[in-house]
Amino acid sequence: MGRANKVVLAYSGGVDTSVCIPYLREEWGVNEVITLAADLGQGDELGPIQEKAVKCGAAESLVADAKETFIKDYAFPAIQANALYENRYPLSTALARPLIAKLLVEAAEKYGADAVAHGCTGKGNDQVRFDVSIMALNPKLKVLAPAREWGMSREETIAYGERFGIQFPVKKSSPYSIDRNLLGRSIEAGPLEDPMTEPPEEIYAMTKAIADTPNEPEYLEIGFEKGIPISLNGKPLDPVSLISQLNEIAGNHGVGRIDMLENRVVGIKSREIYEVPALLVLIDAHRDLESLTLTGDVTQYKRTIEETYSHLIYKGLWYSPLKEALDAFIQKTQERVSGMVRVKFFKGNATIVGRRSENSLYATDLATYGEDDGFDHKAAEGFIYIWGLPTKVWSEKMRS
Asked: Of the listed 25, 97, 287, 355, which one is catalytic?
């Protein structure tokens, strides 16, 4: 088909992206396929992935260690925005897509490729996130999605790959589709497609079952600087270490599981299971610290911004003008969101039990009911009269 001469392919080492290599060359006339695997903390052995790509026919196989960038430039801004899609999902998988798209575009520019490609199907969210992000970063690049067009079943895809000498290891087939990175795991398909089916314990890898969690609570102090988590129990940590350690602590207490029906970008509902221990705890703690350090009107207005922000990330609009404008608002609100939040972990719960900040707007002398009360109670009467005056006038008119 001659759609492109040189292509950079987002590569995971799975069936679809492996088959994409010969398919692009044989069916679409691509001369050279360069694969790019992004290390986002998924725990895969990336050495064998490079070797496999070359065996599948790739001219070159690249691996990008993007773990720190992933947390600093994508996860932390989402935490500052308390980003929860449909008020539940903290976007652990969605946040990886604009970063992978950026890596693809950069590699295409470096190697002189005229197209980038991915292995997404036409049913999911990731195709939208990749395509739109690539369009935003380099509108001249072609975006190829072979799996969206080839119309092959799983068995046919494997058979096609075998024709070109690709070996797919025989293993016990899992009915689940799993995506993992440093922020968490998403699990879907198989028996989970029935919304009434309880998720079996075997699908979880980052969080313990409640029965297996410690019988004593554990307390943890999370330090924030301008809305960004910087320490655990007073110990400063780099972004990757902080997320990793918090995943371990929260997961050990069974914290971080989500089971939800989600509205996908393409208009269908999907049953999704997520394990996101650190991310959920950090958003909860960060929101609590904001309640101590931001004025009421800013906090309330920011909630509406957060919902929009979450939808932009979910729907592939990370590199959009609106997202950029909202970033400016959010960054301004974070200037005084520094301090510490104390969290109690116990039997599947992460409960916030304390918070403090040098920028605290909580005034003890105004809040107390004790003898140190400095609030002017007499001022309340006049305030209530003025505050309630429109309602009083309305009521009088209605009754007359």
From this structure: 97
